[in-house]
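User: Round two. Same drill as before: sequence, then structure, for each protein.

Assistant: Same drill it is. First protein:
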Amino acid sequence: MPGEHLLLVDDEENLRTMLAAALRHNGFEVSSVGDGRAALGAVADAQPDLIVLDVMLPDLDGFEVCRRLRA
């Protein structure tokens, strides 16, 4: 879905940077954050079309972030 706004959530900065570059190269608009709480805030602010969410995050794990987004 090139042209869509994607939120990338991962606590490993190197991986986040590399994935964001690859996704931008393929036409996505990318925002990225490094933890679950920041992800919740970014979703509220930017309302992304897609979310790539790491499961193992330092504060709220990806499953909890997903639960809160669905609620």
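Second protein:
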Amino acid sequence: MITKIGSDYVIKTTDEAGVYEGLRELWCVTFGDEPEYVDATYDNFGGDIRGYAAVDRDGQVASCLTLYKCGVFEGRPVYVSYAV
């Protein structure tokens, strides 16, 4: 998924090449966590975690959002934001 934000950034998912690595790096710098912690968080939630990142023209992650599934309400998944 790519969504354009003006002419400077696009929103990409962590499924796209290089995006997860940029999200992980930004997460570690921002929150002081080790890369292994971020990897373990994503591994722990499996398919129930989603990452999104605002990526600049040079491919650098400028901002990120991680969502994890916390349940189901009226048959629809409910996600909580984490590590914004």
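The chain has a mean pLDDT of 88.

User: Perfect.
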